[in-house]
Design goal:
alpha+beta; three-stranded antiparallel β-sheet; 55% helix; elongated; DUF2628 domain-containing protein; membrane; transmembrane
Length: 126
């Protein structure tokens, strides 16, 4: 089971954000950021990746550029879900609950079942 935080905006839209490592962030970096509507982060990541790709692969600076690029993707994996949470909050979403489920859809189903389920923490604290 994975742990998800549920966020809701005033219009009633809900999002489930997994806690921990972000595989999509790690593998897709800038594209993932744009899909998650993190425009500034996506732009910075895209520019960084393009600049780092300019250096020739066989040179010492090319190796350094590849290591920095890999570090960027590691940072996206480590921080990605936290960045998603901050982005949702900045877009008017509020924290509702923390739930355990196998996937985001399951997390939403557990949340919608209500507070009687022992897997839901709806008091705003973890």
């Amino acid at each position: 089971m994975k742990t998800f935080k549920i966020y809701e905006n005033p219009a009633g839209n809900r999002k489930a954000v997994k806690r921990g490592w972000s595989w999509p962030g790690f593998f897709f970096g800038p594209i993932w950021a744009f899909i998650k509507k993190m425009w500034g982060l996506g732009t910075v990541l895209l520019i960084a990746v393009i600049i780092l790709a300019i250096f020739p692969a066989g040179s010492e600076i090319g190796l350094l550029a590849a290591l920095v690029n890999f570090g960027i993707y590691i940072a996206c994996g480590i921080n990605g879900n936290g960045w998603c949470e901050k982005n949702l909050i900045s877009r008017g979403y509020e924290y509702c609950a923390t739930v355990s489920a196998a996937n985001p859809e399951g997390a939403m189903a557990v949340f919608l079942k209500g507070p009687s389920d022992s897997e839901v923490n709806q008091n705003g604290k973890e």
